[in-house]
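Before drawing any conclusions, I needed to go through one protein's amino acid sequence and its backbone structure tokens, quoted below without any editing.
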Amino acid sequence: MGQGSWTCARDNFGGRFLLAALMVSTMVAAGGTLFAPPVLAQAAQVTFSIPAGPLNQALAAFGRQSGLQVTYLPSVAAGRTSPGFSGTAVPADALARLLQGTGLSHSFPNPTTVAVTAPAARSSADAAGTIALDTIQVETSPLGPVNGFVAANSITATKTSTPLIETPQTITVITREQMDAQQAQTVRQALRYAPGVYFSDDADFRLVNLMARGFQLDQYQDGLLLSGGTWSMPRVDPYFLERMEVLQGPSSVLFGKGSPAGVLNMVSKRPTSDPIHEIQLQTGSFDRLQAAFDFGGQLDKDGQWLYRITGLARDSGTQVNFLDEQRLEIAPSLTWRPDADTKLTILTSYLDDPKAGFWNLLPIQGTLLPNPYGQIPRDFFVGDPSFEHFSFKQASAGYEFEHRFDNVWTVRQNLRYQNVNVDYQEVQGASLAPNYMTLSRSAYTANEDLGTFAVDTRAEANFATGALQHTLLLGLDYQHKDWDYLMRWGAAPSLNIWAPNYNQVIPLPPVFQNAYQTASQTGVYVQDQMKFQNWNLVLGGRYDWADSDTFNRLNNVTTLQNDDAFSGRAGLLYLFDNGVAPYVSYSTSFQPVSGLDINSQPFQPSTGEQYEVGIKYQPAGLSSYFTASVFDLTQQNVLTPNPINPNFNVQTGAVNSRGVELSAVGSLADGLSFRASYTYLVPEISSANDGTQGNDLANTPRNMASIWLDYTIKTGTFAGLGLGGGVKYVGDSYTTNANTQVIPAFTLVDAALRYDFGYSTPNLKGLKLAANVSNLFDTEYVSACTLAGCRWGMGRVAYLTLTYDW
């Protein structure tokens, strides 16, 4: 190890001791009852938070929150609704409240199983006297129930199925229904109304950089990191997702090295017992043509084998001249359930983007700043059509395995291998000459081959020590990356932006990077979620070892870097019987920093530390969820110029991000759904050697607000008609950390109109038509800037989508 690594290990000895002490104390506290079953359902009190809604969703929530297995016939729950229940009670009483008005009853065949039945006979005999039993529905989904825009549980914040109301940290879930209502075509669009999330909403879809609380969110899919290279960042299309979960704040305790912003975890569509048959056709702005399908269900009568296959094909122009977008993607998946305690789901996908994006950074004079010749149009192209090329291919395969050994222990493992191949070349704009006409340019190419492997294994134990209930999580994860890349860069002919000549010869530039890098991370972690009456306490600790090895083929030099770090989290929440839940939390993160200091020593990891205080509210009998939080987040060991020699860096920089975040989401029984949020952020550079101390972080607005309302008429003449609309406000920000130029605030309006033909014509049941328009009033705005230039935000875009389900 380098000197910096030894220092990190020495400084974190106390952290490793705390991790070991937490594991030992939890087992000692169990007093020899760690392997004992939970307290009998008729005796142990549990805190429940189950909104009103479809009965099958309420029973799923009850099963997860009580730790009991719930069995019932599908016909028993069909068409029934539950009034919901929030409060502390023994499971038998809570279930009785959930079943009020349904005419159903329940019984406990054993201490860990509850059966819900109808008064009528539960079986029938055929002519030969054989008893024919209906299929029993067993609710064990770790995702938890969803009602419209409102999700009850999250699997990202704790890696267990934990109710949002019981999670002492800011967590937002974007459901499939919300994505459909807004017809999100990209990950950015799907998060457009997510609280506290911001990004450059422009036509460049090469990379999806998402920001929160002043820093970039790490992107995960199905709980595993989407690790990337320069342009080989893995891509996800929202049509292939079931939900998106945003956990804000340092999250290294469960995920290892990462940004202090937090985690975006995208959950893939997967096989279900219910049959799925969907075909979708779409057209719209820029001659867009898209077709998609989604099929799934049981492969056998017993439901042991389930399948799902989702596919999409797209061909479209873009907001920029000469540049198009194309995509082909398919994602088959298969689930095997040999018994009620074991499940294996295989997830695969293949994506091919023959036309995968572009650079097209425009001069600041003519976008943000005035140009004497006028404003540069949004569709202006700075490159060369004959040279521009971007091919992106991605393939992945993995699985999710779960086995429940007994009433205490369950083991889960997620695994995925992914390969990304990139062939990219472009002409980039640089600086505009003093004549405000001539744009200097450079030619750039990149060839990348990226292979990543990730596996996460965790054991979950549910048990009680006296009146204290535990959900104990023990985990081990590993990530590995092989990245082979060759990049060229050099001068290209200049361009007159007011009289462009796109027929110039662009020479192939010389090689400036040619390297092979391997990187890996191994982490062990422990977490205990403890409940005592209305109190919820979460304690977690983790230790990581990360290393990288980069071989530079241009100079035959190998650079090694080794880091290790401890991360922790603590959170305390009290859930009142009326659904109000105040909480406090503390969490940390670490992120390796590449490079060497003036003494040729590797840099230590940057660290993140957050204090958060908040309150959550989930009213009983109403499918809604409200949160308010105040946070103070600091990143340390940030690189800043060395005051002795500015050609080198030192790690004395720091960034402090403080703010307030308000959020509300609901789906009401009358057909109204909503999501609203407001964020106030102070993203201050608290320490720096380049004169920026005290300034705001670049491209980080202090104020953000949004609201989306969606209403479906369910009765009367206009039954089946749906209306939706939203407003999003993004406040002023600065182009660079120097804070010399301001990017003005902007407000965007979106609208949606849809119709379900099945309401008026039963023969057309499942046929739906939707029209969605983003930036309805075609507002012109600058979405982001750097020292090199700016990007126009997206203008008005309209989609018409025809969907048929059967």
In short: The CA atoms of residues 241 and 268 lie 4 Å apart. Residues 13-29 form the longest helix (17 residues). DSSP finds eight helices and 48 strands in the chain.
